[in-house]
Amino acid sequence: MKVYFCGSIRGGRDDVHVYQKIVHKLQSYGSVLTEHVSSAELSDTGEGAMEAGDQAIHDRDVDWLRQSDVVVAEVTQPSLGVGYELGRAVDMKKKVLCLFRPSSGRTLSAMIRGAADGDQFVVTDYSEDEVEKVLEEFFSLKESRTNQNAE
């Protein structure tokens, strides 16, 4: 399985420790195409040093998004890039899980929370200590639905 993980880069790196925990768990389900998002070495200036620049980053990431089987996004830190990726994922009919921590004191965008349909686009409130359990539940549901559709 190929997993596309979304997390804030240029919108702020305050949650990188959470991204690391999520990506580590996601690696038990398959290949995480965007594991670099969880790197503590990546600053909020992003991959600007990449020789080809922003367009190359966009094109590479959209290609990874196309290749992915599922999208997992940590949406607590507001990010234009993550919102864009989620919109593209919906357009591509990808299965999406959005993770939000209410303890942050933030309010999740209505465009994200309101998109939840409980099946293809799932929004889950969680606390940091339960993220592994939330991912286990999501992937076990995804697997059981895939098996049902195959029958």
C-alpha termini separation = 20 Å
* Radius of gyration, in angstroms, nearest whole number: 15 Å
What is the count of DSSP helices, taking H or I runs of 4+ residues?
A: 5
Percent of residues in β-strands = 15-25%
Helicity range of the residues? 40-55%
**Strand arrangement, major sheet:** 2-1-3-4-5
Description:
- The protein has 151 residues and is an alpha/beta fold.
- The protein contains 5 helices and 5 strands; from the N terminus they run E-H-E-H-E-H-E-H-E-H.
- The chain has helices at 16-26, 54-67, 80-91, 110-113, 131-150; strands spanning 2-6, 31-32, 70-74, 95-100, 121-125.
- The protein has a 5-stranded parallel sheet, with helices on both faces.
- The chain is globular, with a radius of gyration of 15 Å.
- It starts with a strand and ends with a helix.
- The mean pLDDT is 92.
Would you spell out the secondary-structure blueprint of this structure?
Blueprint: E1 2-6, H1 16-26, E2 31-32, H2 54-67, E3 70-74, H3 80-91, E4 95-100, H4 110-113, E5 121-125, H5 131-150
Parallel strand pairs: 1-2, 1-3, 3-4, 4-5
List keywords for this structure.
single chain, 151 residues, alpha/beta, 5-stranded parallel β-sheet, 5 helices, globular
